[in-house]
Write a structure and sequence with these properties.
The protein is an alpha+beta fold. Helices cover about 40% and strands about 20% of the residues. The chain folds into three domains: about 100 residues; about 110 residues, Immunoglobulin-like (Sandwich); about 90 residues, Sandwich (Immunoglobulin-like), CATH 2.60.40.420. It contains eight helices and twelve strands. A hairpin with a 6-residue loop joins β2 and β3. About 30% of the residues are buried. Keywords: Copper, Electron transport, Heme, Iron, Membrane, Metal-binding, Translocase, Transmembrane, Transmembrane helix, Transport.
Length: about 325
């Protein structure tokens, strides 16, 4: 089999995966993908017609050319006919795109009724605060940097920002929408396929904009309900002496910025860590959730994510290991 050029392989690499609008896995993403296909067809047809017209015109000029350059002419009737044909093509093409855009907008933003689950997402430099409205009690269940969605159901996202303009984008599931300080924008997500996907801030928001990612898990309604119920419970009690010592150190050094449900940690500056060990990553997708990465993040956050609001807390390696052991047990 012949080898494909590197450029072709790189182009094909963007056609699928966990962060690609060309692999739609939600109702809203399907609408956008259909609109994209329509635009490609219309614009491609116009491009071909323009190139054909240009080639035909050059050919006519060449055929009618004489020794004297000023003898080259094209009849006014031919020019008028070409102008009207071009105008007709443009009108038909633009009208088609307008209708397609209207249909796609209706598919993405039409109201889905009162049964839609409400999730409030607030962008921070550079992480995501996520709050679920408990359908049973009406209270808010908070987590961070990892979004869970039930497959087949509609989730209404209420998007805002705590500092600068961000933009919420999970390309496999839906289009992007800006998150603006002082207001809330609404976006519906209706995933149709289970699996892990990746979201990203799509509006440049500072030094670590590229490291403001979002893990998104689409799962069955039963699995989602079980996950949400677990998130509503308080933090687990430390299971051993090292973790217990880590909890004590955390209460003294970290509680001012973080929440751990069921403890005295009630800080709001940073992410909620009540069940941090259940997440795939830390630091908004920057590092995988492992014991070593937890230790590195605690010891040198500025070296891993320069400019982050997470300060370096002065601790010796033993204390850092204890705090990491405590966080690793928060499931």
């Amino acid at each position: 089999m012949k080898r494909l050029p590197v450029g072709v392989l790189l182009a094909l690499a963007g056609c699928s995966g966990v962060q690609s609008p060309l692999a739609p896995s939600g109702r809203e993403a399907d609408a956008l993908f259909s609109l994209f296909g329509l635009m490609m067809v219309v614009c491609g047809a116009v491009y071909v017609l323009v190139m054909v017209g240009l080639g035909w015109s050059l050919w006519r000029v060449y055929r009618r050319r004489t020794v004297a350059a000023d003898s080259v002419s094209i009849s006014d009737r031919t020019l008028d006919r070409g102008v009207w044909i071009a105008a007709g093509i443009i009108i038909v093409g633009l009208t088609t795109l307008i209708i397609g855009s209207f249909i796609a907008d209706r598919a993405m933003f039409r109201a889905r009724g009162r049964d839609a689950m409400l999730v409030r997402v607030t962008g921070h430099q550079w992480w995501w605060r996520i709050q679920y409205r408990d359908p049973a009690t009406g209270s808010w269940i908070e987590t961070a940097n990892e979004l869970h969605l039930p497959v087949g159901g509609t989730t209404r996202m209420s998007l805002g920002s705590a500092d600068v303009i961000h933009s919420f984008w999970v390309p496999n599931v839906a289009g992007k929408l800006d998150m603006i300080p002082g207001r809330r924008n609404l976006l519906d997500l209706t995933p149709r396929r289970e699996g892990w996907f990746r979201g990203q801030c799509a509006e440049f928001c500072g030094l670590q904009h590229a490291h403001m990612a979002l893990d998104v898990k689409v799962e069955s309604p039963a699995a989602f309900n079980a996950w949400l119920a677990a998130q509503a419970r308080p933090a687990m009690t430390p299971g051993n002496g090292i973790a217990a010592r880590g909890a004590s150190l955390f209460a003294g050094s970290c509680a001012a910025c973080h929440v751990v449900g069921g403890t005295t940690a009630h800080g709001r500056a940073g992410p909620d860590l009540t069940h941090v060990a259940t997440r795939r990553s830390i630091a908004a997708g920057t590092l995988a959730m492992t014991r070593n990465n937890l230790q590195g993040w605690i010891a040198q956050p500025q070296a891993i994510k320069p400019g982050t609001s997470m300060p370096a807390v002065p601790m010796n390696p033993t204390d850092i290991n204890a705090v990491a052991a405590y966080l690793e047990g928060l499931k």
